[in-house]
Amino acid sequence: xxxxxxxYAPSAEMAAGAHADRATYEAMYAASVADPDAFxxxxxxxxxxxxxxxxxxxxxxxxxxxxxxxxEDGSLNVAANCIDxxxxxxxxxxxxxxxxxxxxxxxxxxxxxxxHAHVSKFANVLKEMGVGKGDRVVIYLPMIPQAxxxxxxxxxxxxxxxxxxxxFSADALAARVNGSEAKVVITADEAPRGGRNxxxxxxxxxxxxxxxxxxxxxxxxxxxxxxxxTAGRDVWLHEMEETVSADCPPEEMNAEDPLFILYxxxxxxxxxxxxxxxxxxxxxxxxxxxxTFDYHDGDVFWCTADVGWVTGHSYIVYGPLANGATTLxxxxxxxxxxxxxxxxxxxxxxxxQFYTAPTAIRALxxxxxxxxxxxxxxxxxxxxxxxxPINPExxxxxNDVVGGGNVPIVDTWWQTETGGHxxxxxxGATPTKPGSATLPFFGVKPVVLEPETGKEITTxxxxxxxxxxxxxxxxxxxxxxxxxxxxxxxxxxxxxMFFSGDGCRRDADGYYWITGRVxxxxxxxxxxxxxxxxxxxxxxxxAVNEAAVVGYPHDIKGQGIYAYVSLxxxxxxxxxxxxxxxxxxxxxxxxxxxxxxIQFAPGLPxxxxxxxxxxxxxxxxxxxxxxxxxxxxxxxxxxxxxLIANRMxxx
Length: 651
Ligand code: WTA
What we know:
The protein is α/β, with parallel strands linked by helices. The protein is built from 21 helices and 30 strands. It has an eight-stranded mixed β-sheet with strand order 12-11-8-6-7-14-15-23, with helices on both faces. Strand 1 and strand 2 form a beta hairpin. 5'-O-[(S)-ethoxy(hydroxy)phosphoryl]adenosine is lined by residues 264, 309-311, 386-389, 411-416, 437, 500-502, 514, 516-517, 523, 528. Residues 533-611 form the AMP-binding enzyme C-terminal domain. GO terms for molecular function: acetate-CoA ligase activity.
């Protein structure tokens, strides 16, 4: 049992200088769950409110009435909190360090004053294009400062942004533009990454062939590459900026007005638009940023995520900037020009808190220690991980080689839906164990349920599925345009609880260990992917009759994508077709969805009622077919013999 695992206690020095030591954490946690109104009423004051709230928590998880409101009678503006309120005290401090893909190009430092000027202009450009309070804007940009400006510009005028990861395909972009009925899509000519340029504007043009709503395009000049502009639809940001005023007063927003929509994968159907609102989200993002990373004034904070994911929203843009931090934005990839890039950037900018994903750690670990040891990492005070369970081997390498054995690691468990960290150590408070996300953040009530009955397991040691018993301020409020689906997805399986979709174990010390998704969501390189999405892309190909997709263990990615495909009559299962199908999925969704293994199968294992038996497909993909379990309900047992004989993962 993991209780015997080695624990790493915070050093006395760390505990003494931290926002929270053990005793503070315990006292604050107890207060936060005993009286959420009092606790969050107090901590909500970390923001500047235009109208102070008098109500704090008003939330219901009751069937038929899922209703979540925090600070509901308060008003504020997120951009004013992330920029304007810092101007008097830290106007000349760097807000954003931008590190471009090409290390030779040199970093940019953007001060809070400059950020204010950029965002105000950008906001006026959006207004000029007809965007107003409550309108949606899609952001499809590389990791450039304009991505942060665009998000904050929307927040400033009360528009709702929906950031679409630049690695997503034209089709995926079109679906999100249509889904949110966006008035404007912000993109760039090209996106440099790892020394190559992705033709972003070309993708956006392709997407617009399928865009059915009236939408304009605002284009950022990043590389100066040759692109086509459609008259009457497309405009350049830099040209528009010349025509607008530099003054844009922040719009007064109710705490419960939507701040953003972010599409994420679920176990069924197409991605859903997770909606986060203004007040509670920012309170929680800023508080977790401060406590989880033990951020102090003057520190340089680097989260390596992309702003296309929730991690980039909460911990590159909103949390750090609300705290007046210096946040680093990196355009490139960990292995370009070589596997030392992360550490070179850490040295160059004296990064104090570094936050990345286990998949990156594993990839870099495989390149050897020399890439790390070449650089001075002595400024590092906290290391963070997010996105998937971290295997102890990677944890130890992060700890020993990157942290030199004396930098605490925070393994943060959370989701797009949760807006911020729910389970995490605090660097000065929580002894860590490799692979455990440890204990709940303030205000979070995790429960472990029996998967079948939904009964809460109340013993300290427990194994089951993870749910959260009560609301926290940055909980998602709804699915864009589909509140019923919100209730169905998160509150119907287990009554009066928010269901996470993750399995977990609680050890004798009350520590939580996430065991991975228990639904049909897989986690590929820390990116969430619904198997249903990949399946629907595959069956959209004319050669494919049926497809079933499962995850299998992958050394670097955590999980790889394993697709079983049965072909239409008359189609030959050739290597060319295998490649074609791979490329097809890549084009339909994006490179992250490309199957690692495709197995052609004459048939898929089904129950007599025609339901695909995924349990069996998972076992075969895991090369663990000795343990297939009960196969007596199979309609055609011989299908399984063929699947085993021709399995793709023989390792
Ligand atoms: C997984 C990313 C183990 C989990 C912030 C969750 C993790 C999904 C961890 C959410 C962690 C995230 N340990 N698993 N520290 N962090 N996950 O929405 O399965 O992209 O449900 O949010 O990632 O992924 P999402």
